[in-house]
Recover the amino acids of this structure.
């Protein structure tokens, strides 16, 4: 260790190259790190969606859900499963054990479901899929003095615009129910044309469809035959032929029924300041950057409001605000810590020495950014909490090493030797202090469940930051101090520093020294005072 440290002290260019390499490569690592609200964790949730029209919750539970649960008991990699049975539908949520490949377990779960051949008649094919982990990015409302159909049309246009932006793929609309076409048959007219309700309904069902009729191959071309007569609005169904009489006359739908477009009877509505609105929600996947998404959406909202006077887009909630606040807090704490170390060490030692000690904060973070991305760490509230937490620890080893080097120099040891001996003397203690902290935080890496998935990123941030603070304190700091004017015989001093040195000497020899001597000579009184 002594020869290793001595090499960098003798050849400061190597230490400077190491410092700049860590700094610039760390900046590159930071630039490539994505921002998410929570740590990005691959999904370990498999959903089984069940649709059984006309069933009661009891029928769904007894006839479908319990049969699937029995088959899931033997599937390897399943930690637990929970089910919900409702009217007309049900769902089963399967949690995969940590360490198992979710895709492999998905195949086994799907096979377990397909093995059941005693499902009730009328059950739609079960849908088995991996639940995608999505993070909330931003939501905004579109409102104005227009009807709900117009708002929905604007919402669809906004949805298409946002999906076309690079980095945005998850956009959803809410605040309105599904649209329906109501066909109300008039009983009097049905009787007049000698039609039953079922005959009329079958005629509408047969006419409103979109199917393929296969292909017609010719010598030079191949034609696709398709029937496209599916209508989505009431106006398009008015002329559907319900009946053709023997004399060739036809009965159309509007002659026996009233048609209108309407909203489904459910309470899915949203209001902004008392007015109807459509809510646009944008989410981010594990591969997308949340801050980038919110910036693009905010800019789009500004442009949208400038171009439209009838409706207005208003932000409801921005998920990146908390993340931005944490980033601001981290920057403030980093600058504050850098300044406090610089000022206090400059008061009692030397401002140049204080600068090199305070430099441990950016260098340690740069080294952490260099490696953290490879371990899946993102800029999120948990990792930022770890950075904020570790700021107060990063300069501790630098302060101890720098102060000991300065003490060696004040005792008359030459500057190069003072830097070497001052570092070697305290490196074991500094190393022990850092290792104990690393061991404490490494316990987060062994926690199972969602808590372990989240707080493992905080542990990685703290561990890598402390490791690089040790590298900076044991290699880069002694090299810079050894060649700094802080250890120069003709170093300049100022009146402020001289005043603080006199104050420290007074506290050391006039206040602390006599107090310590009295306590040591009167140990029983000292112990009694502490106990009292």
């Amino acid at each position: 260790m002594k020869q290793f440290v001595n090499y960098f002290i003798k050849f400061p260019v190597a230490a400077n190259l190491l410092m700049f390499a860590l700094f610039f490569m760390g900046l590159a690592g930071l630039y490539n790190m994505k921002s998410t609200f929570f740590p990005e964790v691959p999904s370990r949730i498999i959903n089984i969606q069940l649709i059984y029209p006309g069933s009661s919750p009891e029928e769904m539970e007894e006839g479908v859900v319990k049969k699937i649960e029995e088959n899931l008991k033997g599937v390897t990699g399943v930690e637990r499963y929970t089910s919900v049975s409702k009217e007309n539908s049900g769902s089963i949520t399967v949690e995969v054990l940590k360490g198992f490949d979710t895709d492999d377990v998905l195949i086994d779960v799907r096979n377990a479901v397909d093995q059941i051949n005693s499902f009730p008649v009328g059950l739609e094919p079960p849908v088995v899929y991996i639940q995608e982990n999505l993070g909330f990015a931003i939501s905004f409302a579109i409102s104005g003095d227009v009807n709900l159909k117009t708002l929905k049309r604007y919402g669809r246009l906004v949805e298409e615009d946002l999906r076309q932006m690079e980095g945005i793929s998850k956009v959803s609309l809410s605040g309105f129910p599904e649209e329906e076409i109501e066909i109300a048959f008039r009983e009097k007219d049905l009787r007049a044309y000698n039609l039953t309700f079922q005959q009329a309904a079958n005629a509408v069902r047969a006419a409103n469809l979109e199917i393929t009729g296969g292909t017609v191959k010719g010598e030079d071309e191949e034609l696709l035959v398709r029937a496209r007569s599916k209508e989505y609005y009431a106006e398009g169904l008015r002329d559907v032929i319900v009946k053709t009489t023997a004399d060739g006359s036809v009965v159309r739908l509007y002659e026996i029924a009233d048609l209108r477009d309407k909203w489904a009877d459910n309470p899915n509505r949203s209001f902004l300041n008392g007015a109807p609105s459509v809510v646009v929600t944008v989410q981010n996947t594990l591969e997308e950057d949340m801050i980038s998404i919110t910036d693009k959406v905010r800019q789009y909202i500004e442009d949208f409001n400038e171009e439209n006077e009838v409706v207005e887009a208003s932000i409801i909630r921005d998920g990146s605000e908390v993340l931005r606040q944490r980033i601001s807090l981290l920057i403030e704490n980093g600058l504050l810590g850098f300044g406090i170390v610089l000022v206090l060490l400059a008061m009692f030692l030397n401002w140049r020495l204080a600068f090199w000690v305070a430099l441990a904060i950016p260098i340690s973070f740069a080294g952490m950014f260099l490696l953290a991305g490879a371990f899946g760490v993102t800029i999120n509230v948990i990792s930022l909490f770890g950075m904020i937490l570790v700021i107060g620890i990063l300069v501790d080893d630098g302060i101890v090493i720098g102060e000991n080097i300065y003490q060696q120099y004040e005792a008359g040891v030459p500057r190069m030797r003072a830097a070497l001996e001052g570092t070697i003397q305290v490196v074991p203690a500094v190393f022990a202090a850092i290792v104990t902290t690393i061991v404490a935080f490494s316990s987060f890496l062994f926690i199972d469940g969602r808590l372990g998935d989240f707080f493992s990123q905080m542990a990685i941030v703290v561990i890598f930051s402390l490791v690089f603070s040790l590298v900076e304190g044991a290699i880069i700091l002694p090299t810079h101090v050894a060649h700094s004017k802080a250890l120069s015989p003709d170093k300049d001093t100022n009146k402020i520093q001289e005043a603080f040195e006199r104050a420290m000497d007074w506290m050391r020899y006039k206040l602390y020294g006599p107090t310590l001597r009295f306590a040591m000579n009167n140990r029983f009184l000292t112990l009694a005072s502490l106990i009292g």
